[in-house]
Design a protein that fits this description.
elongated; mainly alpha
Length: 128
């Protein structure tokens, strides 16, 4: 599956260009921002400003379904190095355990309703 370069205004500060580039290349957002500011300070200011404005105008905003996929991927990402974004393994396992517990409770509620007399009564009314 090929990735498309989008702007990510949800995770971005000014237009979402750095956030979109970071997502596209699988980098940390803060690293892309530091590289952009460094390029600006090293004498490429005019080029950086023009390129940033052009990217804001040319790149499309990240579609909601893509943003949702990216969010869920990042939400369950274990950090490999201390400076990376993500959660420690123990935090991630605790979060997944909580999510599984919530899903189990929801399934239990559905099972209780489907096996109840109220469900059978509603089904009989719908048949009428």
């Amino acid at each position: 599956m090929s990735k498309t370069l989008y702007r990510d205004p949800v995770n971005g500060k000014i237009g979402g260009v750095c956030a979109g580039v970071a997502d596209y290349f699988g980098m940390e957002i803060w690293l892309v921002r530091i590289l952009t500011v460094t390029a600006f300070l090293m004498g490429l200011g005019f080029f950086v400003i023009v390129a940033y404005i052009a990217a804001m105008l040319i790149l499309e905003k990240m579609p909601p379904e893509e943003a949702k996929r990216t969010f869920h991927y990042k939400e369950h990402q274990v950090k490999q190095k201390p400076w990376q974004q993500g959660k420690s393994a123990s935090q991630l396992l605790a979060d997944i355990d909580n999510e599984m517990g919530e899903m189990e409770r929801d399934v239990g509620k559905m099972e209780a309703y489907v096996t109840s007399k109220e469900y059978e009564l509603n089904r009989q009314f719908k048949k009428l």
